[in-house]
Amino acid sequence: MPANPLARNDVLRSGDFTIDIVYRRVKLQEFLVRFDLTHPLVRAYKERAVCMVNSFRTELGSKRAIFDLLTDDAVTAKFPAAERRAIKDFVPSARLVQAAKTTYKNHKVDLPDFVMKHRNKLVLKPNDDNAELSTVYGARTDDLGWEKALRQAMRTPYVVQEVAEPTRVVFPLMQYGSLMMKDMQVDVHPHSFLGKVHGCSSWLSVAGAPGFSTLTGLAPTFLLEGK
Description:
This protein is of the alpha+beta class. The protein has helices at about 30-35, 40-45, 65-70, 75, 80-90, 110-115, 145-155, and strands spanning about 10-15, 15-20, 20, 50, 95, 100-105, 105-110, 120-125, 135, 160, 165-175, 180-195, 195-205, 215-220.
């Protein structure tokens, strides 16, 4: 992106080329390492001179720390009753990892001490998707490995979350020209626009497989209702 400000008539340009729409791939924190808020793209976005397909606001949806807020009763106390019930039913309890006191099932606990004592039902996840930071399941590591993972989580933004039991369904799959029935894990991704959910898709992965599989992928989702 050129260093020049917004060009003539508040139009974003690269040389003589007019830019009307931008698909952003760079993460916001990576963008701010190289540029500041006076960058032409930021100005164009702020002044609505360009359409950004995945706007800067979408970064909020990728931060796992948002689950800390959603499962904090002090934050959700004024939410509608139906929303609070949905959160309790579908969002596992989560906290940003830090040296602090927190509430777990109406009891005050020291968060690092609680994490160390209950590793079998907890998972440590980086706040941002990062190839250098890994997710650590307490049930899949020993006490020493869990302690090491907790120390890293105290230094780098991580959340600790109760492990949710995955949904598994048997699917017919075609592999190497043969039809087989395979146990697959299903993760549903809702599609929202302007604050409303308008549909969803499902991410299928081989249940229990630790690495990459060619069977993993996105699948359309249908809601089947009786007449």
